[in-house]
Amino acid sequence: METPGSQSSLHRANLERVVRAVRAAGSLTQADIARTTGLSAATVSNIVRELKELGTVDVRTTSASGRRARSVSLSTDAGIVVGVDFGHSHLRVAVGNLAHQVLAEEAEPFDVDASADEGFDRAEKLVGRLLTMAGVDRRKIIGIGLGVPGPIDLETGALGSTAILPGWRGISPREELEARTGVPVHVDNDANLGALGELVWGSGRGSRDLAYIKVASGVGAGLVINGQIYRGPGGTAGEIGHITLDESGPVCRCGNRGCLETFTAARHVLPLLHASHGTDLTMHRVVQLAREGDPGCRRVVSDIGRHIGAGIAQLCNLLNPSRVVLGGDLAEAGEIALGPIRDAVGRYAIPSAGAGLALVPGALGGRAEVLGALALVLREMGDGLLLGPVD
């Protein structure tokens, strides 16, 4: 039996510290592990050797700053994680290993406003198909990350607003998927997962603080503070779409008037182009036409950027992030959207908050949320699961 403060408990804590650092980053050199954990180089070397013997990590020769180094990652055989992302018009699933390698990924159209049962049935089938494609055993799944387009109650794992997904009323997505699969499920809203995906794999790499802005059927922000997703005590941090821009403006689904969402979300802005472009437009198509020079679409995208910029300016004044990552279809518009966003931030943010801001498009596109779901499992899973009993 280990006792607090004993050599065995200290050794176990150091093992878990190293595993935690590697798990969060995907791969690290031994020198990086020492810097991250505060352990000595000799201690890290001994721990990595032990973890390799346990089959917990893989070690390969690499180079860092032109010098020979040893790169450490979690073993590709240690387990499988699954990411499931429900968008308002799609379902995307990815299967990955603990070394941050995506083994299989697929998306299909899906109306999330349909019943929750139908959604989970589709997700189960897609997960099964991807596991077969990747050639991995379902029994190796150690966790599932689940993304939904709405706020999540952190205590219960239930949706925080039934107005957003009426077909999911009374459903706890976490409990439902756990009951169906028998493995731990970690759930979060899509904006938070987009932020996590970009932080681990995309335009947010190397940042300790950022805001990820997603513009789709709604508008949300995923906030990273000191390297961690900030959700707030009720799980609703980042609902930037409900900042009031015009108290006499259109009525929002939340019940207020003139929310940012009513000037930027697809269901509010696409009707502006129906008379000239038809009623089968999508935001993706509008952005594509804007890039091709269509004047009406360019104006709409520019206006969306200006309104989003006003919201980002308020985030800058409150939280002063060093980086803002623009996700969703709007990111594909490039400077057509980014230029007006910068102009609005320059106008409405206090100079000290906006001066050092890096505004960048997301690197992952529509994959950000499902990759964030994988990263969520990798961050939330217990280190003891990888170590088992260690003498």
> How is the main sheet built?
5 strands, mixed
Spatial strand order of the main sheet: 6-5-4-7-8
- For the termini, the CA-CA separation is 10 Å
Report the strand count: 13
Strand content bin = 15-25%
Order of helices and strands: HEHHEEEEEHEHEHEEEHHHHHEHHEHH
Mean pLDDT, to the nearest integer, reads 88
Structure notes:
- The longest helix is centred in the C-terminal third of the chain and has 25 residues, at 295-319.
- The mean pLDDT is 88.
- A five-stranded mixed beta sheet has the order 6-5-4-7-8, sandwiched between helices. A five-stranded mixed beta sheet has the order 11-10-9-12-13, covered by helices on one side. It has a three-stranded antiparallel beta sheet with strand order 1-3-2.
- The chain has helices spanning 7-25, 30-37, 41-54, 116-134, 173-181, 190-201, 261-264, 266-269, 274-277, 283-291, 295-319, 335-348, 351-354, 368-380, 384-387; strands at 27-29, 57-64, 67-74, 80-86, 90-97, 102-109, 141-148, 185-189, 210-215, 219-225, 228-230, 323-328, 358-361.
- The protein is 41% helix and 21% strand.
- The chain is globular.
- The chain starts with 6 loop residues before the first helix and ends with a helix.
- The protein contains 15 helices and 13 strands.
- By secondary structure, it is α/β, with parallel strands linked by helices.
